[in-house]
């Protein structure tokens, strides 16, 4: 501390120019390269998506097709909308798009452990989740060790505007000066590390040029440790999957109550009104 700070009163506290060379630049470089390492580790461990069977894709796309119809119904003519809605209502009701026949009413759901394909999918999901956790956790712990080993206990900068005392715990982590009452605007190296860790997302996107959900998990270690991603969460063993019978039934009811209004209704009068004024 004595190498970087000439201590006096809080208003007269002056940082040595060595802080920029020995603390600021190395600390920013450590955080930057740590994020790049997480990025390339995530790309290396990422598996290409498996090819789904045709019946599974058809089942998923049927539900998406009905949702797209509800969202864009106003762009279809009344005859086309009614015909397409009637077709989807019948298909969703009789289960034409289901990959398996609908189970009888009152029957218990099938155990996914009895299906080798479902079990393999669950294990792949758990493995992928553990890899994402390792990508976010291991480099993060190594970076934290370096920061606490070489940069802890150092004042790094001062915020150019006054802050209330509640910000002292946030900006002055790792600093303990009983003989000096520091203002809340002073920032320690440990706090600067956390600020950089959560604020360099646009810099990573500029350097890497990839803003997909998987790469954003690699940039944010907290998301990686939580196993978060832009896709669906992996299915745990023993947990039932999506019940498309109920999803189809609910989507059919949504098609029944959709509020339809053709966007081209009265377009001639509206066009003439625009030029008349």
Please provide a brief summary of the model.
57% of the residues lie in helices and 4% in strands.
> Kindly, what is the distance between the CA atoms of the first and last residues, rounded to a whole number of angstroms?
75 Å
Shape verdict: flat
Helix content: 55-70%
Give the number of DSSP strands.
Answer: 4
Q: Regarding quaternary structure, how should these chains be classified?
A: single chain
Count of helical stretches: 11
Query: Taking strands numbered 1, 2, ... along the chain, how are they ordered across the largest sheet?
Result: 1-2
Q: Compute the gyration radius: what is it?
A: 29 Å
Count up the domains: 1
Q: What's the helix-strand series?
A: EEHHHHEHEHHHHHH
- In the predicted model, the low-confidence regions spanning at least 5 consecutive residues are 1-10, 212-219, 222-240
Write up this protein.
It is found in: Membrane. This is ER membrane protein complex subunit 3. It holds the Pfam family EMC3_TMCO1. The chain crosses the membrane at residues 20-41. This protein is mainly alpha-helical and 277 residues long. It has one domain (17-221, 235-276). 57% of the residues lie in helices and 4% in strands. The protein is built from eleven helices and four strands. It has helices at 18-45, 54-71, 78-94, 116-150, 168-171, 189-199, 201-208, 213-219, 221-226, 244-256, 267-276, and strands at residues 5-6, 14-15, 155-158, 186-188. Strands 1-2 form a two-stranded antiparallel sheet. Strand 1 and strand 2 form a beta hairpin. Helix 1 runs parallel beside helix 6 (189-199) and helix 1 (18-45) packs antiparallel against helix 8 (213-219). The longest helix is centred in the middle third of the chain and has 35 residues, at 116-150.
């Amino acid at each position: 501390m004595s190498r970087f700070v000439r201590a006096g009163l809080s208003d007269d506290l002056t940082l040595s120019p060595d802080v920029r060379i020995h603390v600021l630049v190395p600390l920013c470089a450590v955080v930057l390269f740590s994020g790049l390492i997480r990025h390339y580790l995530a790309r290396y461990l990422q598996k290409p998506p498996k090819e789904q069977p045709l019946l599974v894709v058809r089942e998923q796309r049927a539900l998406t097709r009905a949702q797209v119809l509800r969202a864009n119904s106003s762009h279809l003519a009344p005859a086309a909308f009614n015909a397409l809605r009637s077709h989807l209502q019948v298909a969703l009701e009789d289960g034409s798009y289901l990959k398996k026949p609908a189970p009888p009413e009152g029957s218990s759901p099938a155990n996914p452990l009895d299906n080798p394909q479902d079990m393999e999918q669950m294990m792949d999901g758990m493995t992928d989740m553990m890899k994402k956790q390792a990508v976010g956790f291991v480099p993060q712990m190594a970076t934290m060790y370096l920061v606490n080993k070489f940069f802890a206990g150092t004042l790094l900068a001062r915020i150019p505007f006054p802050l209330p005392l509640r910000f002292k715990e946030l900006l002055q982590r790792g600093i303990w000066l009983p003989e000096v009452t520091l203002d809340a605007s002073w920032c320690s190296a440990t706090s600067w590390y956390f600020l950089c860790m959560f604020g360099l997302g646009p810099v990573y996107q500029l350097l890497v040029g990839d803003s997909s959900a998987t790469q954003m998990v690699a940039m944010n270690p907290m998301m990686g440790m939580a196993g978060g991603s832009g896709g669906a969460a992996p299915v745990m063993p023993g947990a039932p999957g999506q019940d498309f019978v109920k999803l189809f039934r609910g989507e059919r009811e949504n098609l029944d109550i959709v509020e339809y209004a053709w966007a081209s209704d009265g377009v001639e009068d509206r066009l003439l009104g625009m030029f008349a004024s």
